[in-house]
Amino acid sequence: QVQLVESGGGLVQPGGSLRLSCEVSGFTFRYVQMTWVRQAPGKELEWVSDINSSGRTYYADSVKGRFTISRDNTKNTLYLQMNSLKPEDTAVYYCQMDQVRGQGTQVTVSS
Questions:
Q1: Which of 64, 104, 62 is nearest to 87 (CA)?
Q2: What pLDDT score does 34 carry?
Q3: Do residues 103 and 93 lie in contact, with contact meaning Cβ atoms separated by under 8 Å?
Q4: Using CA atoms, how far apart are residues 4 and 67, in angstroms rounded to an integer?
Q5: HEC states along the chain?
Q6: Rounded to the nearest 5 degrees, what angle is found at the Cα of 29, between the Cα atoms of 26 and 34?
Q7: What CA dihedral angle connects 34, 102, 88 and 72, to 10 degrees?
Q8: Could you report the per-residue pLDDT of 54-73, keeping only the tens digit for each?
């Protein structure tokens, strides 16, 4: 059974940082591409970043240069380091494998 469990969200001031984690189980993590997506209130799901099995990374223009996706295959864990956070980054963040997502973690950027 595929399981994705996100953590690390919270309330942070503009300009601050957070690191999200996603612990996975039920599949061979090191062989699959992983994705972060987010959904802001009243908006559609938005792609944020991908990392493939080789470690190659891809970012939405809105987060490029501020967010870093990474993975630790020894811990079956995906990460998203978010720096220079802006109010428009406020959303529920989900990790995703194929069409399966976790329950999400709330990120709120506000002063």
A1: 62
A2: 97
A3: no
A4: 20
A5: CCEEEEECCEEECCCCCEEEEEEEECCCHHHCCEEEEEECCCCCEEEEEEECCCCCEEECCCCCCCEEEEEECCCCEEEEEECCCCHHHCEEEEEEECCEECCCEEEEECC
A6: 110
A7: -40
A8: 999 999 999 999 999 999 99
